[in-house]
Design brief:
The chain has six helices and no strands. It has helices at residues 14-33, 38-42, 53-72, 89-92, 99-118, 138-164.
């Protein structure tokens, strides 16, 4: 998997900047996974953690789906890998999971997210559904998504270094 990561602009309007930073972090996760085998993508960090790169990709597919489809658009879509009975399914069931399916699903959810964001007139648009008892603005959702990716990209960096020693920004 080859991923081109584009640095966000040093100066731009707010929406352009938020889009650029979100795409930068999406690309960062893809870079951390690039060139690894299915077995390497499934490797867990350290017990008792079930964290793996494949689990992070599956988790971010869920996060994209939740915030842009369920919350922002108010779509009635269920979880992909988790259920109420299995809330950590995206992390727990990677041993036999298809990496090809996980990456395709993640990319598809990113495309849904981009379309949902682009359909909004401005960053002040409020989500159609509540999350945590609040209707969040598109601005808040985009900032939250950047934070979510940034945090998990830190995990991905450590996981990748453990797998093959690769480090980098």
């Amino acid at each position: 998997m080859t991923e081109t990561r584009i640095d966000p602009p040093a100066a731009a309007d707010e929406r352009t900047m938020l889009r650029a930073w979100l795409d930068y972090h999406r690309s960062t996760l893809a870079m951390k996974c690039a060139g690894l085998t299915e077995e390497q993508l499934r490797l867990r960090s350290v017990p008792p953690s079930g964290l793996s790169l494949l689990g992070l990709v599956r988790h971010m597919a869920e996060v994209e789906r939740i915030w842009f489809r369920q919350v922002l658009n108010g779509e009635d879509v269920s979880g992909i890998y988790y259920t109420d009975d299995d809330p950590d399914g995206e992390f727990d069931h990677v041993d036999t999971a298809s990496t090809e399916e996980a990456f395709a699903t993640w990319r598809a959810e990113i495309e849904h997210a981009r379309a949902a964001e682009e359909a909004c007139a401005d960053l002040d648009v409020l989500a159609k559904a509540e999350r945590w008892g609040v209707h969040h603005s598109l601005r808040w959702i985009m900032c939250h998504m950047i934070e979510e990716y940034a945090r998990h990209n830190g995990h991905a960096d450590l996981l990748r270094e453990r797998i093959d020693g690769a480090t980098g920004k």
